[in-house]
TrEMBL record:
Keywords: Membrane, Transmembrane, Transmembrane helix. It comes from Prochlorococcus marinus str. GP2. InterPro entries: Sbt_1. It comes from the Bacteria. This is Putative sodium-dependent bicarbonate transporter.
Length: 332
């Protein structure tokens, strides 16, 4: 008996553990994950996907499809925050609009990992070079968000809050998650090029432990997301609608770009998920430090409390349906 893809996705262990974490908060369980562990698992997941992605890029090489796909990924992370900013300006000031738009222009690595798990469960092939797109899409949106504040903010902004281009670039390119992901990508690439036995030695750590670590991390994410839900009341209906509309809109654009690039269904889904996901780690960290005028409850509660669970529970199978509908059409 064939199970509906949405139901099959919901019944996958990572999603079930996410829901178990959320339910524990709703029913006031005393389940608690010690603070250092989620950070450790987050770093582990970034290291593992970067390392495996570097290996796959070395294997596939920089083909005619790799460079256009990576270029399109960067372009999307520059365009999406601009679109989001224009929409949000109908309701919010420059600071909040730029911070929220940057969050939705950047990506969520955990959503990407969930999409990979979904593809594996559906036995749909995808290429490791898509991890390169993941790594390249995190920083540009931060740069766009901070530049929007720099050029559109009121002229009387305190001098202490003026931003210099060097500080913007440093925060965007060298924040912890971007640095670890890119570094691991390079290590994986170099290992596959010059020391293949190193891949075998790393496999128990980056391969066999990965799925369990993902489940544990999503258990914590479920707890955190549910804890953020009450704050959505303060966000208002406009922002709640934006948190659902924007991923769907970005996915729709992403699938047409994927079709233009002639990506296969697996790579197309990963590309669409990158366009539709939102950052709840790197961007909030950057915005909290450089744009304190923006309310963190807006961009964290919506991305983590609404967009993230929507994407991993319903969004991924919906985007797969979009890919299966639009990609088979005649080329653009």
């Amino acid at each position: 008996m064939e199970i509906n893809p949405i139901l099959q996705n919901v019944l996958a262990p990572p999603v079930l553990f996410f829901l178990i974490g959320a339910i524990s908060v709703i029913f006031k369980s005393d389940l608690e994950i010690p603070a250092p562990l989620p950070k450790l698992f987050s770093l582990y997941l970034l290291l593992a996907i970067g390392f495996k992605g570097g290996i796959e890029i070395q294997k596939s090489g920089f083909t005619d499809q790799v460079l256009p796909t990576l270029s399109a990924a960067i372009l999307m992370s520059l365009v999406i925050p601009l679109i989001g900013f224009l929409i949000l300006r109908f309701k919010f000031d420059v600071f909040n609009s730029a911070a929220i738009a940057a969050a939705y222009g950047s990506i969520s690595a955990v959503t990407f990992i969930s999409a990979e798990s979904f593809l594996e469960s559906q036995k749909i092939a995808f290429d490791g070079f898509m991890v390169g797109a993941l790594a390249l899409m995190e920083s540009p949106a931060i740069i766009v968000g901070l530049l929007l504040v720099k050029f559109a903010a009121p002229k009387n902004r305190p001098k202490s809050r003026k931003m210099h281009l060097s500080a913007i670039l440093h925060e965007s390119l060298l924040n912890g998650s971007v640095y670890l992901l890119l570094s691991s990508l390079i290590v994986g690439f170099l290992t596959a090029s010059s020391n293949p036995s190193g891949i075998e030695k790393m496999e128990p750590f980056t391969g066999q432990l990965f799925y369990g670590a993902e489940c544990f991390f999503l258990l914590d994410m479920g707890i955190v997301a549910a804890q953020r839900l009450p704050r959505l009341k303060n966000a208002g209906s406009f922002l709640i609608g934006f948190a659902i509309f924007m991923p769907l809109f970005n996915a729709f654009i992403g699938v047409f770009v994927a079709r233009f690039l002639s990506l296969g269904p697996g790579n197309a889904l990963l590309f669409v998920v990158l366009c539709a996901s939102a950052s709840y780690l790197a961007v909030p960290a950057a915005m909290r430090m450089t744009v304190p005028e923006a309310k963190s409850s807006y961009y964290i509660s919506t991305t983590l409390g609404l967009t993230f669970p929507f994407n991993i529970v319903l969004g991924i199978p919906i985007y797969m349906g979009l890919v299966n509908t639009i990609i088979p059409l005649s080329p653009l």
